[in-house]
Each structure stands twice: as C-alpha cells, then as structure tokens.
Specification:
Length: 459
C-alpha cells in the first residue's frame, strides 16, 4: 500500500494542532495559559530578556483572573534562580547586580512602609526581614546585606555563567503586620521583587524587574495551607475557574519604580555595609575615614547652628566643629538644607541611637536638658534662683552654688541639709542623686569657726 507523504504530513499537523488546542483548554489559566507559557520560552530569542524563578509552589485556590499566590515558610531557604535569556554574550565580561526585596503588596501598607519596618525592627532587634543562605547559593560573585534596609539583599552575578541561584529566607510572617484583634487574623500578602542592573563602578543601569505575590507563614504553615487549599478545591464544582498549582513560581515582569528622591536615599547608598565574597570567603569592609574625632569640644569652636543656606563644604566644616568628623565622608555631598531635612528617626537609623540623637539635637540647636533642677533662695530673699545639675554630685552642687553667689568654690567647706527635726545631714553624691527634680530650698551660709570658709545649709 502506497502512502502520499504530503497528505500524511498535513494529517499529522492537523492532529497536532487539535491536541495543542485541547491542552490549552485544560490548563485554562490567564496567568499560565498556553500562549503565555510558550511566550516564556520564546523569550529565549529576545536579546535582553531575563527570567527569575522562585522554587516554591503556587496556590490552587486562586481564580484565573487573579495574580498567582505563593506560600512560604518563615525562615526556610528557597532557591531563586536568576537567568539571562537569549544571547548571554551580550554582557560578556560584565557583572549584573540584582536587588532582591520583600515589599508590601497592599497600597495601604506601602504608604506606611517606613513606619511598619521601623516598628518591626524595634520588636525584633538584630533580625532581618530578608536574608540570604550563603552556603546553598551558587554562581553568586558577591552579596551585600544593608544594615538599614532589612528587607533587601543585593547579589552580583555573571550572566555568562550556566546558572545562578541564590537561596533566600523571609523571617517575618504575614500576620505581623495585621492589626491584632481576637486571633485568626488574615495575614497580609507581600511581594518578592527582583530588580536587575548592569553593575558599574560609577552608576548602575536598570535592565529588568520581576515580582510575585507571596504569603509567609510560621514554620510548616505553608505546607498546611497548601493541603487546606487542595481539599477545598476538591469540593468545588467550578474548579475550571481556578488556576492549577505549579511547582515553581515564575516572577512576572513589572515596572521598576525608583524610591522617592530624598537625602535619606543618598545616605543609604553610602552606608558602611559589609560584603562577603561567596567564592573566596573574604570580607570586604569599607575603610573608615582617618579624620580624628576630638574627645572634647575646644572652647574656641562655637556650637553655631547649621544654616539651610550652608554649602556642602560649610556643612563639612560644621560637622567637624560639632564633633561629627567621623561622618564627614558619609555626608560629603550634603548641603545644610539636605542635612536639616533629615528627621530624628532618619538620623537614628543612619548613625545609631547615640550619635543619631546627638546630631539631631545639634541640628535643632537644642540645649541639653539637665538631669536635675533645684531652686534656691537666701532666707532674707523671696526670689528663687534655678540651679541646673548636669552631673548630680555634691561637688557639682557646691560649684553651682559658688557660681550663683559669686564666691570661690574653696570658700565653701561643706553643704548640709537640715530636715524638719533640726538635724543637719552632710550632703553626699547619693543624696544629690535622690533629690526630687525641681525641689526648692532656702540657703543659709554659716561661717566655720576659726576658718575663712562657710558651711552652706539647705533648708
């Protein structure tokens, strides 16, 4: 029996087309329908295409018209594959930088992200929202953890390599940002976003961004949630309206929105962050400035306020005069207006609590509040005078009393306190430290017998 090869080819082609059509109908997803799945592979032909795959399963309880949702366990390492599609030789000899972030999905929380992150930092000191599992990662040239951006890590990778994968860990759970009521609160969704740049010493050029929606549960919680979703979907009669569960999550291309320009962003870019090379294991730490920090502010250096009109050079000089020379390099491009625009919280995040509060007070030109204030008057006088003690000791009190009444401190031998019973008690450091703030006393000076000194009595 003879076969016509042309008729046979046409018949096979028709059968193959019909089979493909059926397969697309069975999948029936808008996020992962056949045309879009094929489009993923067609990106191989694109010159500048990128693909990010999170090795975590998607939920089956998501409608076709909605974005995929992926469940993660808190603290568990998940592989995130980074790949340059098409001709990788386009970037031969070049290094790419990918900034991986965990962001809020809801617009409402996006507007208060700074406050939410700051509160999380207080509740979980020393923890990070997003971290990288270095031993499991491969193909990564270098990674960076920012001490300020706890929800972000950066990796450098070579697009010409066969494969690159970084294992990420999310340490916050979705219910941590839900108002607590009576338990059983629904957790908020996050976004895992990857922004890839062409890395250069001077500037980074944005190339591509991708993201996916995730929810984070306590350990093993994601597995239980997947099981619950599967059981729920088995009972539904309209399962064809829902997406199937996929073993991997492909991050969808999204727009890259830069952060609102502010002086804080500039500081974050120049913060001292420790970077570790995964392949060599060496730690690269920025070299600190050699500018000495004076322990005591010289008397001839005034604590003048910083003016908004100050140039960057004048701002550098002001930092030196006010004992912030160690941060000159950090603020090297800041004008007076830039520095004054930083809030107290910004400065604490950048410099730490001690120097952050000190710089904020210096910028506001505030006087330091004394640790203890007392009011005194002579018995023959009805007008009280304030004595401010920065160092609440008996010696400091003696010095302030001598200064108030314009006598040498050597003229005062002792300070005693007379209580209601008439007993006089020698004032010690411990007594001064236990005086109630804003207490009032009348003062009497008694000449010491046979000496040119006086004993001051507090009544």
């Amino acid at each position: 029996m003879a076969f016509n090869m042309e008729d046979l080819d046409q018949g096979l082609a028709a059968d193959f087309d019909s089979n493909l059509t059926g397969l697309g109908t069975e999948l029936g997803t808008s996020a992962y329908n056949m045309s879009e799945v094929l489009a993923v592979f067609k990106q191989e032909e694109e010159e500048d295409g990128f693909q990010y795959i999170l090795c975590a399963a998607t939920s089956p309880a998501v409608k076709l018209s909605e974005e995929t949702l992926t469940y993660l366990n808190q603290g568990q390492s998940y592989e995130l594959k980074l790949k340059k599609l098409g001709n990788a030789q386009t970037y031969s000899g070049k290094v790419l930088k990918s900034n991986i972030r965990v962001l809020f999905h809801d617009k409402r929380l996006q507007y208060t992200e700074k406050e939410q992150m700051a509160e999380w930092r207080i509740q979980r000191p020393g923890d990070r929202i997003l971290d990288i599992d270095v031993p499991l990662s491969y193909g990564v040239l270098q990674y960076t953890r920012s001490p300020i951006a706890l929800n972000s890590v950066e990796v450098l990778w070579d697009p010409a390599k066969e494969s690159t994968g970084t294992f990420i860990q999310v340490h916050c759970i979705s219910t941590e940002f839900t108002p607590k009521k009576h338990g059983g609160e629904k957790g908020v969704p996050f976004r895992v976003q990857v922004d890839t740049f062409l890395h250069d010493q001077d500037t980074d050029t944005h190339l591509h961004s991708g993201s996916c929606q995730v929810k984070v549960f306590k350990p093993k919680g994601a597995d239980r949630k997947h099981k619950t979703d599967r059981e729920k979907m088995e009972k539904k009669s309209d399962r064809d309206k829902y997406q199937p569960s996929y073993e991997y999550t492909i991050l969808s291309t999204c727009s890259y929105v830069t952060a609102v320009t502010s002086p804080v962003s500039a500081v974050y870019d120049t913060l001292n962050t420790s970077s570790t090379s995964i392949e060599t294991g060496t730690v690269v730490t920025p070299v600190p400035t050699n500018t000495p920090v004076p322990d005591v502010l010289d008397d001839h250096l005034p604590t003048d306020p910083l003016l908004p009109a100050a140039t960057s050079q004048q701002t550098q000089e002001w930092l030196t005069r006010n004992r912030f020379a160690a941060y000159r390099k950090l603020f090297q491009n800041f004008t007076g207006a830039d520095l004054l625009r930083l809030s107290r919280d910004d400065l604490i995040q950048i410099l730490g609590p001690a120097d952050g509060i000190r710089l904020n007070n210096a910028l506001q030109d505030r006087h330091v509040r004394p640790r203890l204030t007392i009011y005194v008057c002579q018995e023959s006088d009805q007008v009280y005078h304030a004595i401010y003690l920065d160092n609440p000791t008996a010696e400091d009190l003696k010095a302030k009393v001598a200064l108030l009444y314009n006598v040498a401190i050597t003229k005062i031998s002792h300070i005693v306190r007379q209580i209601t019973s008439g007993i006089r008690i020698l004032v010690s450091d411990e007594m001064v430290q236990n005086l109630q703030d804003e207490s009032s006393f009348s003062i009497e000076a008694l000449k010491d017998e046979g000496r040119e000194t006086y004993t001051v009595v507090l009544k």
